[in-house]
Amino acid sequence: MATSKLTIAPSPHTRRTLVIMAKAPKPGRVKTRLTESLPASAVTELYRCLLEDTLALAKSLVSVEIAVMCPEQDQEELAQLFGDTVQIVKQKGEGLAAGLSHTFRHFTAAGRQQVIAFNSDSPHLSPFVLERAFGILCSHDVVVGPTHDGGYYLVGAKAAHPTLFENDGMGTRSALERLLSRTKSLQLSTGFTEPFYDIDVASDLRLLASELRLAPAKAPRTANWLREWRETIAELGEGVEGK
After folding, report:
1. Rounded to whole angstroms, how far apart are CA atoms 78 and 55?
2. Average pLDDT by consecutive 10-residue portion of the chain (243 residues)?
3. Per-domain residue ranges of the chain
4. What is the pTM of this model?
5. What's the rounded Cα separation, in Å, for the pair 189 and 72?
6. Of 139, 102, 95, nearest to 117 (Cα)?
7. Top CATH class, 15-162+195-230
């Protein structure tokens, strides 16, 4: 990601926190739907690149606190990976839904807080989209960034809503629909950033490769990995589905 900083200034009375939802890069635990097309070791390294580029994207924002939320067993490894450059918080409970619930409980406790949970595999997103998401929270209870496959790449709020991620359907094409059903039932005003894509299956990887060939500075570590695996990625069939 380019190192230039955004200059949009938030209200001095509002704290803004971007929380990256992450796992430690371990074989068999990250991006498993890609392992039918690529070696597990290569997929693990890809995830590491995505995660490091995502952190660089987050750090390009101005007046935003950065943190990582992760499963308890991953805290030590991520702390070694990132050193003291970012706060690593271990989630309470198992699974992404539990991690999201803990994220908003933990980071909104002090009040006057805008919190956005962001996935760890969209470093190619424009930083202006993240800034826009914080802006949307100024006038809405919740902000959501939809993905083209029926999920979402970010969700933000100013308070914890305990039932917001119940029956979440994470990893399915109904995840966004279920989230919006709950925001409606909780009578939460909801704003949206533009639809985008994250990296789950082979077709996502091919799309990312095409994008980063034109603009590698968006995610330089990931772009380098894609160059190394260029021939293999080019041969990946359309519509490959993982496990």
Report:
1. 12
2. 42 82 95 92 97 97 96 95 92 91 92 91 96 97 95 96 79 84 96 95 93 97 96 70 36
3. 15-162+195-230
4. 0.89
5. 32
6. 102
7. alpha beta
